[in-house]
Amino acid sequence: MKRIISFVGTVLVITILMAVTTPGLLKDVRLGLDLKGGFEILYEASPIMEGQQVTKDALQETAKSLQKRADAMGTSEPEVTPEGTNRIRLKVAGVTDEAEVRKTMKEPANLTFRSNDGCKEGEEFCKIELRGDDFVENGASVAYDELRRPMIDIKVKDKGKFAEITKRLLGQELAIFMDDQLLSAPTVQGVLTDGSAQITGSYSLDEAKQIRDTINLGALPLKLVEKYSQSVGATLGMKSLTKTVEAGLIASVAILLFMIIRYRVPGLLASFALILHTWLLILIFVWADFTLTLPGIAALILGIGMAVDANIITYERIREEIKTGKSVPSAVKSGGKSSLRAIMDSNLTTILVAAVMFGFGTGAVKGFALVLILEIILSIATNVYFSRFLLNQLVNIGWARKPSQYGVKERDIREL
Amino acid sequence: MSFKNFDYVGKSKIFYIFSIVITILGLVFLLTRGLNYGVDFQSGSNVDISLSKTLTSEQISSVLKEAGIDEHAGITPGIDRVNIRFSDVLTEEQDLKLRSGIEKLDDTATFEVNTVDPEMAKELGRNAIYAVLISCIGIIIYVSIRFEWRFAIAATIALLHDAFVVVSVFSILDLEVDLTFIIAVLTVIGYSINDTIVIFDRIRENLRFTKIKRFSDLKDLVNKSLSQTIGRSIYTALSVFIAALFLLLLGGESIQMFSLAICIGLVIGAYSSIFIASPLWLLFKGRNINNNNKPNAPKPNKDKIEI
Predict the structure, then answer these.
(1) Which of A54, A287, B36, B201 is 20 to 30 A from A184 via CA?
(2) If you measure CA to CA, which chain A residue comes closest to B126?
(3) Interface mutation vs chain B, best among A232, A356, A379, A412, most B CBs within 10 Å
(4) Given an 8 Å threshold on Cβ–Cβ distance, is A295 in contact with B180?
């Protein structure tokens, strides 16, 4: 009796849990650009001025500034990731004016120091005194004054020019602009002849760091060239999503039916494990905030086919054992045991291949490999251990002890 | 089951010849015609437009002419959609002109524009080949540790065979190859090795309980192992095949070629595990027996396979 309760309980609790959570989970899956529409651009960065090198910091800074620009344009969840030594990948979803966004993104970071010198009434900071390339590359750094307040050290290439500017603007404001955004407007405190200066003010450490980064970025502006772009209309993406999901559902039902017809009771358990498998996979996608792309869905559907492989290996083995005349309980036991090694070895080699794909792939290949690895690990949990646990319980209860419940005909059983 | 007493490895000569012929045919096609590379591998732009009504080629080409991008443009119209291929990368301006031109004809049109730099594409292809080679090395090491080197070599030949046949079929049928094709080939490799290992596992298991004196003992053992696993081989291939087939028939257009490659690969993978990998192992192992134990025993098949 206890066994019956624990078996029925396990199945019931899992079923209810899946039924209740699935609608919410499906809503939370983050869809890739190919499914929800948007565009993706891979940029290759090169220095605008000759003789300069693209550094890791410069790439990071450029990515940050792209992110800021994309945010400023009001796009939804822009994703900017530096890749390799000189590439930046930009993903923007649901953009109405793609051309505008693309144009804005491509402009190099434009750092200027501006003054009010000679400006007309009502005009602010009209005169550009210094440009990004007037600063020493990576010359800006954060330091502290005597009161441990953060300040920014900067270095200028042309000492004479800087001396002239500071002399002329003594006591006036020299504002720092990134593109057309005012970052800070410190006042010139003295004439600086050695080409270096400190920008002080009541900055927080984060503000100081931000100004430092901006100046360094401005000193090494990178030119971005579109290397690869993909743009998908929202309706087109939706269409392929529904189509592919539909195909997947039909395929899954066909596979489940096949399993039940061929393997009867254990086939039913395998189907249950398979549904659990898919549910867990979606759960991981939501929790880990993975992005589901079209190849990802394809991997998911193929994975269902591969996950039942574990069940097929085991059940074929059990059928074989039953046919040799063994009792069903001992056939289930030995079948489960002897099939495990084949399942593990075959899955581990497949993981090996997937891991290599993950290591070498980019974009879609990486996503696909990740789904594949996850699927295999999950399928070992659900379609090897969990479904075997269910079958053992069932047999222990005393159910599912007839060979016909495994799809074995009586006349195929050899006498011992 | 009629599979029970089938002599799987006895006919290996036929299957070797079949595989060698496909391989040579594939090589000839690959060398002369090559692959029909999609935009992922070729410099250019690919524009997919989803329309609310059907537009004719003439209507589209007049839009292209107006935008000044009618040179090197291939138009493939379809129901409610049209595909335009440009061998030059569209500039943003041209892209914009094209969109506004089409929108004049159908204001609900949605666009999917893919652009790639040939340099990027070459890199993608190179990475894929590296991935395959490194996978092979990994598999050889793993299988050599868990099984023995003969299994490793036979499995690797079979998986390279599968990957090559899929590529060959795409070349022979002139089907378009894009980035997802690489993924498909890699999946086929994963599936194929999985399939082979399950059979080898059974051979390994049976080896422990069988005394091998002659080559025929070994051959019987391989045949027995194959007949024991044939059910699983067929049913697993079938269930993955069902999944891939539905994706091919009903899934989104952009993964159709992917699904097709998987379908072909599955069949080839199941075939090669049974008819290529297993006889090859027998060939390697059989030599060993004859050299060490029975120099006068009937000689094993001397067929060599070069793939």
Answers:
(1) A54
(2) A360
(3) A356
(4) yes
Closest to B82 (Cα-Cα) out of B68, B107, B61, B67 = B61
Average pLDDT over residues A76-102: 77
The mean pLDDT of A210-238, rounded to a whole number, is: 77
Give the separation between CA B126 and CA A289, rounded to whole angstroms.
Answer: 30
Q: Answer yes or no: do B111 and B125 share one domain.
A: no
> Other CB atoms closer than 10 Å to residue B147's CB: what's the count?
19
Is the domain of B61 the same as that of B196? Answer: no
Residues paired with A141 in a beta bridge: A153
pLDDT at B294: 46
Q: Where are the beta strands (DSSP E) in chain B?
A: 36-37, 44-50, 73-78, 81-86, 110-116, 176-177
Answer yes or no: is B176 within a domain.
yes
pLDDT attached to residue B260: 93
Residue type, position B96, single letter: L
Residue with tokens 């080679």: B133
Task: Kindly state whether residue B21 falls inside one of the protein's structural domains.
Answer: yes
- List Cβ neighbours of B215 (8 Å cut-off, separation of 6 or more): B286, B289, B290, B297, B298, B300
Instruction: Please state the pTM of the whole predicted model.
Output: 0.75
Residue A142 Cα distances to A195, A236, B161, angstroms: 17, 49, 60
Domain containing residue B90: 44-116
Answer positive or negative: Cα dihedral of B30, B33, B36, B39. positive
* Total domains present in chain B: 2
